[in-house]
Amino acid sequence: MKHTSRSFPPPLGLTLVVLLASRGVAFADLCQGLVQDKVPHPMSALSKPVLGQATLDPEFGTTLRRITAVSPVASSDAAIVPLYSTVSAWNADESLLLLYHVGRGHELYDGRSYRFLRSLNIQPTDIEQVWWHTSDPDLLLYPSGRSLRRYHVSTGVDETVRTFEFCTGSVSAGNDPMFTSWDSNTVGLKCDSTVFLYQIAMNAVTGMATTSLDAPQAAPSGSLAVLDGWVLDLSLRPQRMLDLASPYEHASQGRLLNGRDTYNTVAFDPGPLGSGVGSLVSFGLVDGASRVVVGPATGWPYPPGGTHVSSLAYRVPGWVFLSIVGDPAGQGVLDNEIVVADTNTGTTCRAAHHRSYGRNNTQLANPYWAEPHVVPSPTGRRAIFASDWGNGATVDTYVVELPADLGLTLGVSTDKPHYSTGTTETASLSITNVGRAAIVDLLLFEVLPDGDQVVLLTPQGPKQGRLSIPSSLLPVVSGLNLSAPFQVSEPFLSYTWTGTEPPGTYAWVLGAIRPGSLADNRYDPGDVLVLASAMFTFSR
């Protein structure tokens, strides 16, 4: 019998998280331990922390950590900031962090210690248009000149993915860019008066049109895109129009646990057909249905100004982060707040005061740099934001650490994306623990191509299990104490495929769960704390 291997058939392009959700797996509740009321928590005075210092938000109780300390300069505004709310700041395994240093360029930081590593020698068309690959932690993608480029962070190798021969001017992701599809395969671009969708794996332009509009924005599934309020297919054929009063408000595309793409936006006015008003209104791209998550219809105030939306916690689909300026004094509900919301359920919580004036800043030549532009990590347990800390003359980046953040990072990988009879698979795992008081069980298993059967690694050897029977998922390590820091990175499997195994898509899964939480044969919210996965295929 083959050792553990994760697998899930990808019907409809479903990700592993979507598959597990379909089997009833309940993922961590990011609102656990956060304020969920709708009453004022007036912002009080708080001294600006020094570099590396953590401090508690006085009103919301979360940990705020300053991770940069920009030096004032005479030639430009002094700011080190996230690229934008719609662009992932962390790489796939959260080991690296990308920030922008005004006047200097893009800079690389350690994703856990936040130590500055080095400046990056990249020249994107726009400073905001640099995208981490969502499964390869070493890769960045960005448009430059007439090409889409791929940068290997570990080696500094910068290579051309595709030069678009039909472009005479620079290639761009538009004036208000979003992200790639969540498999990092589909990207929406524009050059001259041509807009198009490009798929990297096939090296194919799937749709092209001549227009004065901005670039199309690829949906997380990679099967749809949004442009000027229209939902388009990969050929750029219109499918439906979203009921938006304005398609140009701040927004971010996301995905629900059921795999459906969403367009998450602030809406200051009702749509022509009656869609609601709110700081967060979520639209389904498949059916156009809308839902007010944070707005008057759900007991929240009319949306304050200066709201940015980020749906980039792509390991926990449906969770959306908001940074809201409103009244920068932070005395009213939502003013100067970072908000976290689950668009699957409507659960909403308040994480912190970001203490930035945004466009109200009077000390900077360009107050744009003071916009908070919150961005969650892929797991959603941390988020970064920019802050001028009360209308200051400098802007730095801070991290808000949610109570759900265990300080535990898991990784699992295979040496190849595809295997055939006679080839040997090597699978490896990595665990980085910063040392916080917690105890977990670790699971390590392979999902087989039927999407339900699994083979688990256990102390007693390989065991059979099913995702549909939670109590059958036995841990490889029980009661792991996380109070002491540690780091592990090593191969755990070498297997030569014989040709007797079922062909299809497999996946390795390494997860941390609450101790003993699956023994009741149920998936309850908060059972699954951290999850890492790696897909691969086998053919005879």
Write the layout of secondary structure elements.
Elements: H1 16-22, E1 54-56, E2 63-66, E3 78-81, E4 96-101, E5 105-110, E6 116-119, E7 131-132, E8 139-144, E9 147-152, E10 158-163, E11 186-191, E12 194-199, E13 204-210, E14 217-218, E15 225-227, E16 230-232, E17 238-241, E18 251-255, E19 261-267, E20 278-284, E21 290-294, E22 307-310, E23 319-324, E24 337-342, E25 348-353, E26 375-376, E27 382-387, E28 394-401, E29 408-414, E30 418-420, E31 424-433, E32 439-447, E33 453-456, E34 463-466, E35 477-481, E36 486-496, E37 504-513, E38 528-539
Parallel strand pairs: 3-28, 30-38
Antiparallel strand pairs: 1-2, 2-28, 3-4, 4-5, 5-6, 7-8, 8-9, 9-10, 11-12, 12-13, 14-15, 15-16, 16-17, 18-19, 19-20, 20-21, 22-23, 23-24, 24-25, 26-27, 27-28, 29-31, 31-36, 32-33, 32-35, 32-37, 33-34, 37-38
